[in-house]
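so my prof wants the structure for this chain in the tokens format not the other one, which i didnt know existed until like an hour ago. anyway here's the sequence
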Amino acid sequence: MSDSESSVSTDEPRYRIGAVCRLTGISQHVLRVWEKRYGVVEPLRSETDRRLYRESDIHRLSLLKALVDRGQAIGSIANLDNGTLEQRLQQAEVALKPGVTVEKPVLVLFGESLIASREDCAMSETFSLAGHYDNLPEYTAEKPVKRLDVAVIEWPSLQVDSAVEITRYANRLNARHLILVYDYAPRAALRRLTNERITALRSPLDIAALEAVIAWRFGLVTRPADSSEPAMGVIPSRKFNDRELAYLATQSPAIACECPMHLAQLISKLVHFEAYSAECESRNVEDAALHSYLYNTTSRARNMMERALIRVVELENLSMPPDN
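here's what i got, hopefully its the right format
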């Protein structure tokens, strides 16, 4: 730290933004967006206008990062105090403890066109498919499942006045959540129908979007057994910062191999899209689920590319940039 920066120092240590990003796992781009858009922390400024962070800032940022990694939107937690953040994190950690299993939600499909999705639904690791029925009378004629968490219903045309019939449908099914698969719907109908119990998804039914909605609605965090890859909902921290990626990209001419350059560029683009997906404003529940899915998927892709780059660095015996 320079003399000009030490002029603002007290007994509490001060950290530059690079150190904060290494300590918290938050990229500089995301941290700046969080500060500007949500005011998550207010860093000090040195005489040379550099950001300087307190240990209390790092603690708060670490709490926020841990919760975002577990699927919570930064916009919904940015204004919470540290005590509330710690409480939420403790609750989220329960699902991650070894030996703790999360029971999959039970799902039933209703509608002739949804038969095309039956096979994919049966293979889902997010929910359990209990059956497919052309209509409600067919379902009630049999002995219904004891616990129905999600009813996915084919509803080609949603209208504002459909709410009464859909609510009646929900009560008869006694389902915790309804997902309506529609072809046509005015915005007014979507605004009125989308709530904590009902989600509308456009036809054809996309299994990834369906899984994202269910995982978000039911707060699922799953970890695949015997896998080194992070599970959906658990965001892996970065293995290379921007400076390291730029440095490795320049090593290709020296080793007559362009793999480091291409991998570094791919990772940089994934980092930027990851941040973009995390910060996208959601207009409705469908948007929120989609952005959550994109954020998780991009993070996993970035993690895979980072592991590939680590292997290239080891095999080519590449150096890393010296610390500042």
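also thought this was worth mentioning. The chain has 15 helices and seven strands.
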